[in-house]
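Review this today:
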Amino acid sequence: MTMPGTSLRHRGGLLVTGLLAAASLGGSALAQSPSAAVAPASPVASSLAPSAASLAPAGSTVRLLTHGAFALSQSVLDSFQQQTGASIQVIASADAGSAVNQAILTKSNPIADVLYGVDDTFLSRALDAGIFEPYQPAAITDVPDALKLDPQGRVTPIDYGDVCINIDLGALATAGLQRPTTIEQLTQPAWKDKLVVEDPGVSSPGLAFVLATIARFGETGTYTWRDYWAALRANGVQVAATWDDAYYNDFSGGSGAGDRPLVVSYASSPVAEVYYADPKPSVPPTQAPTSALLDGCYRQVEFAGVLAGTPQPALSRALVDFLLSQPVQEDIPLNMFVFPANTIAALPDVFRTFAELPTHPFTMDPPTIAANRDRWIEEWTQTVLR
């Protein structure tokens, strides 16, 4: 997503065919990792093991293919060159789907050495295309097992975040409404014309929320995920094409300019609203202006991997090491507003104060989504838009 003055997490770009699926993976183990990640930050110079230093002559470059929301502090990026002799050339695609497409289309002559930003909704497609060579950094032992979705070790978890309904607390107070506690409540008359979602055919958070409803309500029985969406449609749900449109144009809370107090966004969005508040309040806030509904959330994990055919495999592996190193992991939250995968990384104070984590977010098995995604999107379209 994108907040004022930042290149914050934005996964709302065009999706490609062939993606994820449904098997709930309880999030309780992950929910403990941010609160446990309170170790003091390590100096930037300690990013890589000594064996990774001086891998390349001065002037060398390692190419990182990623999405347009990729951001790290310049001093952290520069530290890679100080340790290895090689600078990082960032090749930014519009979104994760475009980056995966580029990597697949250039597989025989890779345009980059490492791909970062492929998430679990695209992972199966990337793995099936054979674009990665197996590599796991030593620090993988500090990553929770629930984030490791490839048993063959071809990709490394770098960060994760939860797609959840966000709530404009001020608008609810003005309207005399109590905040909802379940996504089922959003079909009730009190929430008529209050919710905006993104089209899952073109938006990654939109797809993530649909996947959460499929995992929640199922495809068979007396009340299915399609029944839920039919009820949302009857209750006036609005559909935006992208996260940017939904959050900035239709949502009434925080940075939004619309009239809908509920939006599909990220559980970390309230942190960004506090961090980028303009003007800054004279007294530090005790509550963010928005909040996340921690029911019906979907956990997205982002990965990095060495691209098969890279002409400099040692540097490529060092770059994956670097992305999972403590200094980079501690730099991620306030640059991309997601959680670090490495449990050794300490969270910034604003994250520890205002970040919200669902206890049991939904996740889905990548091969299942790959087998069903197109059908699910078509069924959603038939139910909600036609």
Q: What stands out?
A: Residues 162-299+359-384 form a domain with the D-Maltodextrin-Binding Protein; domain 2 fold (CATH 3.40.190.10). Residues 366-384 form the longest helix (19 residues).
